[in-house]
Design goal:
The protein is α/β, with parallel strands linked by helices and about 220 residues long. It folds into two domains: about 1-95, no CATH class; about 110-215, 3-Layer(aba) Sandwich (Glutaredoxin), CATH 3.40.30.10. The protein contains nine helices and seven strands; from the N terminus they run αββααααβαβαβαββα.
Length: about 220
C-alpha cells in the first residue's frame, strides 16, 4: 500500500509476521491468521487500559473505533516491531479476506484504501492527499484527470490515497465531513488543511497541490 510500507516493505513485514506466529499460509496458499495469534488476540479482547498506556491517544482512538486494539496488542506481543510496523501489520490483518477496494476511478498515482481503515493509514504519514470519488460522476472524471497530470511524478513525502465514497458514506461523513464526490482533502495527520468539494478548475488544484508539496519540504 504505497507509503505505508516505506520503513519495512510488505514482503519483509509478512516474513516477520509469519516467523512470529501472527500469520500462516492456508491450504489454498493464501495468507491467514495463525492459530497462536488468534488465541492471543482473543485473550486481549478485554485487556485493561494499562496494556495500551504506551500508545498515544490518536492511535488508541483509531484502533478502538475499528475494534482493532486487541489485534494491535497481540501483534506487539508476538512480533518485535516498532509502532509504525505494528500498525502496518494491523492494516494487513484487517484486510485479509476482503476484496480489493475499487480503484478504477482513482488517479493513477493514488493508492485505493478502504474508508474504514483510512484513519489508521493516516497515522503512518505526516501528510496526505485523500481523493474521494464515485462512479457515473463527470466531475470526478475531470478531477481524476487533473490529478493524473499534476501528480504525474508522485511525491515521496506525501501519501496519495483514494477512497470510493459510496462504500463508506457514513464513515466519511462522521470522520471527515465528506458528503459526496469528488472531494479532495489535503491533510496533516488527521487535520484537514484544505478541502476541495466538487469540480474545480485545473489551476485551483494545481495551486493547492503546489502549496501543499512545498510546505512538506
Amino acid at each position: 500500500m504505497g507509503p505505508i510500507f516505506t520503513d519495512m516493505d510488505s514482503a519483509g513485514l509478512i516474513e516477520s509476521l509469519t516467523n512470529a506466529g501472527v500469520l500462516a499460509v492456508a491450504d489454498n496458499e493464501m495468507l491467514c491468521r495463525a492459530a497462536l495469534f488468534e488465541e492471543r488476540e482473543a485473550e486481549l479482547q478485554n485487556a485493561p487500559e494499562e496494556c495500551a498506556e504506551s500508545l498515544n491517544d490518536a492511535i488508541v482512538s483509531a484502533l478502538t473505533r475499528n475494534s482493532l486494539l486487541a489485534t494491535y496488542l497481540a501483534v506487539s506481543d508476538l512480533a518485535e516491531l516498532d509502532e509504525a510496523d505494528a500498525l502496518r501489520a494491523v492494516l494487513l490483518l484487517a484486510r485479509l479476506g476482503r476484496v480489493e477496494p475499487p480503484d478504477d476511478g482513482a488517479p493513477e498515482a493514488f493508492t485505493a484504501v478502504d474508508g474504514d481503515l483510512l484513519d489508521l493509514v493516516l497515522l503512518l504519514t505526516e501528510r496526505a492527499i485523500v481523493y474521494v470519488w464515485r462512479h457515473e460522476c463527470p466531475p470526478c472524471d475531470v478531477m481524476r484527470e487533473e490529478f493524473d497530470d499534476i501528480l504525474s511524478t508522485p511525491p515521496l513525502d506525501v501519501a496519495l490515497l483514494a477512497v470510493f465514497g459510496p462504500d463508506w458514506p457514513v464513515h466519511l461523513q462522521e470522520q471527515y465531513n465528506v458528503v459526496g464526490g469528488p472531494t479532495a482533502l489535503f491533510m496533516i495527520g488527521k487535520r484537514v488543511e484544505v478541502r476541495l468539494q466538487g469540480g474545480q478548475h485545473y489551476s485551483v488544484i494545481e495551486n493547492e497541490v503546489g502549496k501543499f508539496l512545498t510546505a512538506a519540504n
